[in-house]
Design goal:
heterodimer; A: 149 residues; mainly alpha; 2 domains; 5 helices; B: 69 residues; two-stranded antiparallel ribbon; 2 strands
Chain lengths: 149, 69
């Protein structure tokens, strides 16, 4: 029961802090009291603020849902802390990390060797590709380990 | 790793979900354990041993040369 209460409290703290930071970023971005030069970055702040407000709001909704329905809380807590699931996630994450680091390192070698002759567009696409490849590795290994274990 | 989890579960009249609830793991973990596809952590092994009032060795059977993981 104590574990359940601490899981529930964590949801409240996560939700409140995330919502607070989100509102702060949104307000700072929306007030626009910096110079014109900063305007694009302020929109970025607003965007991040809205995202954090949504995430924090969701955490708080979950907190009140768990408060009303302790059985739902127990299920979610057990699922999220299930040791087999965590083990599979850690192992898949480890593989994805290796792929991500290797590809990034290889790309850094290429960038170094070409002495900044690469276009920004190409660099953007390669970096985006590395993010996709890392995520795909994670998902593929999740599915594979779910079948094996 | 072989184990007697399924045998003990049936003997005690538990469903897989009952056992999962008592050991605080998912039902899928119980299925994997019973099929010998997943080896439990030491904490889970202790919880199972306490639940069935047996020693860990009476439930989980370690054989030399078993691969990890």
């Amino acid at each position: 029961m104590d574990n359940q209460k601490s899981y529930q409290s964590a949801e409240l703290i996560k939700g409140s802090v995330t919502l607070g930071i989100g509102i702060l970023l949104f307000v700072v971005g929306a007030i626009n009291f910096f110079s014109e030069v900063w305007r694009p970055y302020l929109h970025l702040l607003e965007g991040i603020g809205i995202f954090l407000i949504a995430v924090g709001g969701w955490n708080l909704v979950q907190y009140f849902r768990y408060k009303k329905n302790p059985d739902a809380l127990r299920k979610v807590r057990v699922e999220s802390m299930d040791e087999r699931r965590l083990w599979i996630q850690y192992r898949s994450g480890n593989n994805a990390f290796k792929v991500g680091v290797t590809l990034t390192y290889l790309f850094l070698l290429v960038v170094g060797a070409t002495e900044t002759n690469l276009s920004i567009d190409l660099v953007w696409w390669v970096l985006a590709g590395i993010v996709v490849a890392t995520t795909m590795t994670y998902v593929i290994f999740l599915a594979r380990y779910e079948r094996i274990y | 790793m072989k184990n007697k989890l399924e045998e003990l579960r049936v003997k005690n009249g538990f469903t897989q979900q009952d056992l999962a609830d008592r050991l605080e793991v998912s039902r899928q973990t119980i299925i994997s354990l019973e099929q010998g596809r997943y080896n439990p952590s030491i904490m889970l092994a202790f919880r199972a041993a306490r639940l069935f009032k047996l020693s860990i060795e009476e439930i989980f059977i370690f054989e030399e040369g078993e691969p990890n993981g």
